[in-house]
Each structure stands twice: as C-alpha cells, then as structure tokens.
Amino acid sequence: MTETGRTLLWATLILALVAMPLAVSSGRWIEFLEFTLFVAVLGQGWNILGGYGGQYSFGHALFFGTGAYLQALLQFKFGFSPWIAMWFALAGGIAVGGAVGFLSFRYGLRGSYFALITLAFAEAFHVLSRSFISITEGGRGVQLALNQDPERALAMFQFNFAGPFLRAYGFYYTILIILLLAYAATWWMERTRFGAQLIAVRENEDAAEALGINAFRVKMGAICMSAGITAFAGIYYTQKFLFIDPGIAYGPSKSIEALVAPIIGGLGTVFGPLIGAIFIHGLGEFAKEMIGLVWADRPGLDLILFGIILILVLGFAPRGLVGISEAIWNRVRYRIRTLRSKTDA
Asked: Residue 344: inside a domain, yes or no?
C-alpha cells in the first residue's frame, strides 16, 4: 500500500472511531466499543515487545496492574489529583518494565525463558499485593470515592455524574485518545532507526549484534515503551471502575487479552491489535448470544471458542487477520492487472 493510501486509511479509521458512538444509542454497545478499544490498547502494548521485538511476554498484567494500583493508591491514601497520579502511575509502569527488562535481557533470557520470567514477576506482584495489606488493602482491593458533583467531573476524572455528553461518551473518548497515542507511538517507531533495529533483533539477534546493533539497549527501549502503554490501560481501568484488587490487577486475564488480540489480528502490524480486539469481542458477544439461546447459561464456552480460534490462527494463518487481508488484496490486484493486460492486448 502506498503512503497516500495509508494516510487515507488512517484518516478514515480515526473518523469512524470518533463518529461511531454518536451513531449508537444503546449503552450496552457503547460499553462494548469501550472494552474493545481497551483490549486494543493492551494488545498494542504487547505488540511492541512481542510483535515487533519478538520477545513474547506471558505477564503483561504486571504493567497493567502497576499502573492501575498506583493510580488508585495515590488518590486513596495520599489524596493526589487523578491527573497528577496518572504521571506517577505511568512512570511506575515504565520503571517496573525497565527493571524486568534489565534482569531478563542483561542475562540473555529470551524465548520461553523470557515468557516464563514475565509470568513469574506478574505472579510475584499478585502475591505481594495480597500480602502487604497496610499498603495495598490486600484482597479487599482499593475502592475510590465516587464524585457526585457534576462541576468537578473533569477535575476528578469521573464522568458518572457529569453532563449528558460526558456521562455517555466521556470514557469512550478517553480510551480512544489513549489508543490513538499508542498507535502514534507505534507509527513513529516503525519509521525510526530504533524500529528497524528492533525488527532486526527479532529476526536474528546474533546477526543484529554482529552488525553493531546494541540488542540489550533496543530491547530495553521496547519493554519500557510496551510497559508504558499497558500501564496507561491500567490507569483508564481504575478511573472507569473506581476499583482495583489483586485478581483484576495481576491475574492472568489481562495478560491473555494483551497477547490474544495481536496474535489473531496480526503480529508486528500497526492495525493488528485493533482488528484482533474487534474480532474476538465481536465474536464473543455473538457466541454468548447464540450459546445462551441453545444451552441457556454455560459460562466459559466462549473462552473455549477463543482457544480454538487461536490454535487455528497459529496453525494456518501465523500473520493473523491482517496477513489474510493482505493476501486477498494482493490476489485481487493480480487478477485486476491480468484482466487489464488481456484487455490491452
């Protein structure tokens, strides 16, 4: 695709995302769109490290939970403004990412070893957040006070009692802005020397180092960038639900959502996580409705469906839905060119 085509695609996508909630009257579908964009943010954070860098993480809940907990605790215990707490939470997520990266990459951990060490760190933080009750409130979690003053809705970063527009769409446009920032960072990365070096490390780390690329520094940059985006998702979650506990923050569900979306959508692509998030959650809603009609209440069957789709994608379409779309587009272009050449002849 040409640069002009990419620009038009970006503009169309942004306009569609901005206008979409205005065309939907159902609060349920607004929630569906918000959650889809939320998973896309998680997926884009994972995609920078796993898709572009080839460093698969099984513990991205570590960065999500750190951002979420810091956002909650700084308000709950120290009375910080949510807008100030946000920057400390973001810095905390990046710092944890840097620490994990240093301890992992400094000693050459990669592949399955790196995946397991991230899972171990996430579980360690899960246990610590339950154990240090005086700091984290333990298993009962942190519940933020609900602001009921419409005039302080923006100042408190809570839209439940805001005006009609903010109450209906405030959190949708919040997560949309975070997603666009994540995509802007990814777009920038793709076009810099850092992005080219990261892809080189993914393809062959030893060869990249032989060419003079500092693989340790490149991977450190990737994990910090990835952790920052994922921590932003945690900040959003805390402000939307005003509650966080160890299971939500550091449990496996967020790590799974973060890796499934880009794998299904397309690893190492800008649009992959968003396409994957739309696909799995659209399919999830459809599956819940259909399963509910046939088998009444059978919780977990939609997760089995996700697992089957993930296996099929990994086995038959390793480049995900983006790769399938590109293959179809290239075949259509080839057919068009063939027809034109026959017509000209």
From this structure: no
Q: How far, CA to CA in Å, does 335 sit from each of 269, 324, 329?
A: 25, 17, 10
**Domain extent for 209:** 26-319
Domain count for the chain: 1
Handedness of CA 134, 139, 140, 141 (dihedral sign): positive
Q: Classify residue 340: in a domain, yes or no.
A: no
Which amino acid, 305? L
**Amino acid 49: pLDDT:** 96
Q: Where does the chain have alpha helices with state H?
A: 3-19, 27-46, 61-76, 82-105, 112-131, 133-136, 164-190, 193-203, 205-210, 215-241, 246-250, 252-265, 272-295, 301-316, 320-344
Task: Assign residue 257 the CATH number of its domain.
Answer: 1.10.3470
CA-closest candidate to residue 118, choices 244, 265, 34, 219: 219
252-265 vs 112-131: helix crossing angle, rounded to 10: 150
pLDDT in tens, 242-293: 999 999 999 998 998 899 999 999 999 888 999 999 988 887 777 766 665 5
- For the stretch 34-81, pLDDT in tens is 999 999 999 999 999 999 999 999 999 999 999 999 999 999 999 999
- Has residue 208 been placed in a domain? yes
Q: Is position 173 within any domain? A: yes
Reported residue count of the chain is: 345
Q: pTM for this one?
A: 0.92
Interior/surface letters 84-115, b for 16+ CB within 10 angstroms, e for the rest? ebbebbbebbbebbeebbeebbeeebbeeebb
Q: Look at residues 225, 283, 281 and name the one whose alpha carbon lies nearest to residue 57.
A: 225
| Runs of H (alpha helix) within 77-214 | 82-105, 112-131, 133-136, 164-190, 193-203, 205-210
